[in-house]
Amino acid sequence: MTIDDVIRRIEEIGIVPVVRAASVEEATRAVEAICAGGIPVVEITMTVPNAVSVIREVSQQYRGKALIGAGTVTTAEQAESCLRAGAEFLVSPGLAPPVLEVAKTAGKLAIPGALTPTELMNAQNLGAKLIKIFPCGNVGGPKYLRSLKAPFPHASLIPTGGVNAANAADFIAAGAFALGVGADLVDAKALRDGNLEKIISAAKELVHAVATARKALPASH
């Protein structure tokens, strides 16, 4: 997929689930549940044990059915390993120019993290097309995102951290391009216990919240 294809797909779905699991088995179960709940995109973080193997396995299993990305990518080496394993996009918690460089060379999308206006400008100057605002919930959530969008109306921002079905509409109304959702979707205990229904139902709730919020936006969006 091209960078633009991936951006379009993320925009259509509107949600980027972040999978932080304790094992390969848990991670693959999480992907299964998220997809079953109607969200065909997943970001598997490098904090998952054997993350690269998980990305490889899941990318093969869901080829053509779901968009698989890698998260918490902080070095050029990690970026290269994830892309070789089949990741279609890379996400970082902060701004890592080497990661952006590797992605650019490979013709793949890298989504750096930023929090302040300065970080956002630096990310834009390095060519980032989508920017993750993290940890957004800790610094004011939707209100903070709205403040950032005022001087950067054309920036495509993905708030992450503290985003859930209850505040999804507020984030969308504040101008979010898509939502990065972690623990509020992939419940660690449910995953451990194999209670996939809980994750499937949380995914469905989130899909509904985003679709409803987008319908309510003024036509100018």
Number of helices, counting only DSSP H or I runs of 4 residues or more: 10
Global mean pLDDT: 96
- Give the terminus-to-terminus CA distance: 26 Å
Strand order of the largest sheet: 5-4-3-2-1-9
Q: From the 3D structure, determine the CATH topology.
A: TIM Barrel
Helix content: 40-55%
Please give the domain count.
Answer: 1
Spans of at least 5 consecutive residues with low confidence: none
Strand content: 15-25%
The biggest sheet, with number of strands, parallel, antiparallel or mixed sense and barrel status, is: 6 strands, parallel
Q: Decide which structural class fits the backbone.
A: alpha/beta
CATH superfamily: Aldolase class I
Query: What is Rg?
Result: 16 Å
Number of strands: 9
Overall geometry comes to globular
CATH class: Alpha Beta
Topology as H/E string? Answer: HEHEHEHEHEEHEHEHEHH
Description:
The chain is α/β, with parallel strands linked by helices and 221 residues long. The protein has a single domain (3-212), classed as Alpha-Beta Barrel (TIM Barrel), CATH 3.20.20.70. The protein has ten helices and nine strands. Helix 2 packs parallel to helix 3 (51-61), helix 2 packs across helix 10 (196-215) and helix 4 (76-84) packs parallel to helix 5 (97-106). The mean pLDDT is 96.
Write the layout of secondary structure elements.
Elements: H1 3-13, E1 15-19, H2 24-36, E2 41-45, H3 51-61, E3 67-71, H4 76-84, E4 89-91, H5 97-106, E5 109-111, E6 113-114, H6 117-125, E7 130-133, H7 141-149, E8 156-159, H8 168-173, E9 179-181, H9 188-193, H10 196-215
Parallel strand pairs: 1-2, 1-9, 2-3, 3-4, 4-5, 6-7, 7-8
